[in-house]
Each structure stands twice: as C-alpha cells, then as structure tokens.
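dumping this here so i dont lose it
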C-alpha cells in the first residue's frame, strides 16, 4: 500500500523552505544552501539537456577529449584558416607567408591580385584590373586604379598615378604628380616630382624634380637636371649636372656641375667637373676634362679635350682644342685648332689658326690664319697673320711679321719681318727685319 502526501511547500524546523513550488517552477533550498543529490537527475526519464560528452579539435587545432578537463592547442601551420576577423593585437614569433593574396595594414584590403599596400590610404583606389603593385607609405599610390607593376615607397610616392604601369619610386614625394607616365624610375626625395612623361630615370635629391613632359632623360646626382621641364633625351651624371636645363635636348653631362647653367643648348657633351658649366644656348659642343669650355655661353660646335681647354671661350665657334690649357684664353675667336699643352694659350679673338705642338702659337692673341706645327713654333706670335711654321722653333720669335713661311728646325727663328720664306734646318735663322727673302736648303746667319 502506498501513500501520497500533497503539499506546496516543505520546510525545515526553522521554518525555512526546503522545497517550494510556485506555478511550474520548483525551488530546492535557499540562497547559500548546498544541495547534495544522490542518484541521477533525469528529464522525464531521459538525460538532462546540454550535457557535453566530448570536445573535438577542428581545423588547425589539436587536443580535445571525451571526459574530464580537456585542452585545445593551435597548430604551428594554419594553411586552412581563411579569416581571423578583427584582431586588436597580434604577436608573431617567426615568419608570415602571404601566398597569392593581398595585405594592407590600414584595414582596407585592396582588390585586384598580388597587390601589397602598407600605409594610410595607400593603394586604396585600386580596382580589379590593377595587379602586382607594391606600395608602402602614407598616401602612396592612393590614386592607382588599373595600373600594374608599380612600386612606390615613401610619403605620397606616386600619389597621382592612375593607370600608368612599371614605375618605380623610392623617397617622399617621388613621382608624386605622375598620372599616366610609364617606365619611370625615381630614387630620392622629390625626384621626378611633377613628371607626367615616360622612360625617365632620376636618382638623387630633387633630380628631374621640375620635369613635366620631357621623356627619356637620365639624371643621377642631387639636383641633376632639376630645372628640366619639357626637354628630352638628356643624360646628367653628377651633382647639379645640367642643373638649369629647361628645353635643351640630347645633352650629356658627366661630372659635378657639368653643363650646370645650360638652358636651351642642345647636342652638347660635357665630361669632367664643371665642363661647359656656363653654357646656356650654345649647341654641338664637346668638352672633356675639368673646366673644359668652362665659360662658354653661346659658342657652338667647339671641341675641347683636356683640363682647362678652351676655358675662357664664350661665343667662339668651331674651335678644336686638345691638351691641357689649349686655347685656354680664347673668347670669341673661331675656327681655330690647337693640339698640345699650352698651344694657342693666349689666343683671344684670333680666327682660323692651327697650332700643333707644345706652346705652338702660345702667345698669339688676335693673329689669324696662322699655322704652326712643332714645339714652340711661332711661340711669340701675337697679332701677325698668314704665317706658316713647320718644325721645332720655326718662326719662334716672330711677333708681328706676316705672311712668312718657315719649314725646318729653327727656320726663321728670330724673324720679326714679313713675306720671308725659309726651307731647311736653321734657314734664315738670324733674320730679324729683312723682308721678301727666299732661302732653300741653306743656313744663313
């Protein structure tokens, strides 16, 4: 026989509720009590809901278990993880490998493929057509849309590029204003700053910084070609080389300050420190050697090889000087040729002279149409014209005598008169004032 007791509340001797039913809720004990149950709790004869029977390690994890305390571990290589969500901090002890994806550190991942962008708004406009771009720096490459294979490193580097490709710029504001120009290389702060053209190479602070539409230029050195705007096909190597050039084309300057002041002169070649430094509009000049054609401004088609050769030339044209200080004093004289150390050294405005040999026509100033072949031939000639001296010391002392011909060692050595001809060793050697004399093969003292 069984008995049934029906109550809503069971209390202990102190009047505290042990079991209380209110509606569909049954409360056992009170706050602070410990309830010890011997046996098994069931839900309508079945297991209670929410019981964990096992922990299984998923992709990229290890560990887990079916009983007791379990531990999950993150495996070292996580090739299967596709997203980490938002991280507030990340410490990596080892290498990070990005295979075929993109990476950006300001929260906005660029579209396209094989793009890398690090910096505030860097590469933030790139579209699906823009590929293989690498941009590092605040606002670097911020306008690139479909441009490919660009590399920009530095604040605002390639800031304005949109569809252009194959550009490389390293340095703050390098290639900053370039929009569509391709295949440019800019290394240095503000190099190729306002460039819009293609195929330019600039390495050095402010090199080619003013260039706008000039193409195929090469500038290596701080401020090299820094004033160039529209001129093309120039090469400048050295600090301030072709520094003032604006529209002059096809110039080559190698050396500190070479062709530094040139503005519009074209087809010039200057090799050596400050060679052709002062040239402005003169064209077709070749200067090889330190200070060669240093002061030339508008003179054209001159060739100077040797330190200081044609140093003082300003407007003289079509001169050739080979040797240290050859034609060094020439200013306006044209069509002269000097080969040898100090040859035509003092010539200023004399035209159409030819001097070959050490100190040949050394003191000539305004004399013209003279020919001196041999060491110290016509050495003291100053203003005389139409003289021919062939041989060591031939016509050496002649100063103002004109239309003389001396062929042979020492021929007409002390001559100062005019219209004499002497052929042979020491021919007419002692003649001073005698005129219109002819001596062939004899020695006359």
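and the seq i came up w/
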């Amino acid at each position: 026989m069984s008995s049934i007791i029906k109550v809503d509340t069971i209390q202990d001797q102190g009047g505290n509720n042990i079991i209380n039913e209110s509606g569909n809720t049954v409360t056992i004990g009170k706050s602070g009590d410990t309830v010890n149950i011997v046996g098994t709790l069931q839900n309508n004869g079945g297991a209670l809901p929410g019981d964990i029977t096992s922990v299984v390690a998923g992709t990229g994890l290890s560990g887990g278990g079916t009983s007791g305390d379990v531990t999950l571990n993150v495996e070292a290589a996580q090739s299967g993880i596709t997203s980490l969500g938002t991280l507030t901090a990340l410490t990596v002890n080892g290498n990070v490998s990005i295979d075929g994806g993109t990476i950006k550190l300001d929260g906005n991942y660029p579209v396209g493929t094989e793009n890398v962008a690090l910096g505030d708004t860097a590469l933030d406009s790139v579209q699906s057509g823009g590929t293989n771009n690498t941009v590092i720096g605040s606002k670097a490459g911020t306008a690139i849309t479909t441009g490919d294979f660009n590399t920009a490193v530095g604040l605002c580097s390639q800031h304005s590029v949109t569809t252009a490709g194959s550009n490389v710029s390293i340095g703050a504001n390098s290639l900053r204003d370039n929009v569509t120009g391709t295949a440019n290389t800019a290394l240095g702060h503000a190099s190729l700053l306002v460039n819009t053209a293609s195929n330019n190479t600039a390495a050095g602070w402010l090199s080619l910084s003013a260039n706008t539409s000039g193409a195929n230029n090469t500038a290596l050195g701080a401020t090299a070609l820094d004033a160039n705007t529209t001129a093309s096909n120039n090469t400048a190597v050295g600090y301030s080389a072709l520094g003032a050039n604006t529209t002059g084309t096809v110039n080559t300057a190698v050396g500190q300050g070479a062709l530094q002041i040139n503005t519009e002169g074209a087809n010039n070649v200057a090799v050596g420190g400050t060679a052709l430094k002062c040239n402005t509009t003169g064209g077709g000049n070749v200067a090889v050697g330190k200070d060669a054609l240093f002061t030339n401004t508008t003179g054209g088609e001159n060739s100077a090889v040797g330190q200081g050769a044609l140093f003082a030339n300003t407007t003289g044209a079509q001169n050739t000087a080979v040797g240290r200080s050859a034609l060094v004093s020439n200013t306006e004289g044209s069509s002269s040729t000097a080969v040898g150390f100090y040859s035509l050294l003092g010539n200023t405005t004399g035209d159409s002279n030819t001097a070959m040999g050490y100190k040949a026509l050394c003191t000539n100033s305004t004399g013209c149409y003279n020919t001196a072949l041999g060491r110290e031939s016509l050495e003291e000639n100053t203003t005389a014209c139409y003289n021919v001296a062939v041989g060591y010391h031939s016509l050496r002392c002649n100063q103002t005598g004109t239309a003389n011909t001396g062929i042979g060692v020492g021929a007409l050595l002390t001559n100062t008169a005019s219209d004499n001809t002497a052929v042979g060793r020491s021919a007419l050697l002692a003649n001073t004032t005698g005129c219109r004399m002819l001596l062939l093969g004899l020695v006359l003292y």
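The mean pLDDT is 88.
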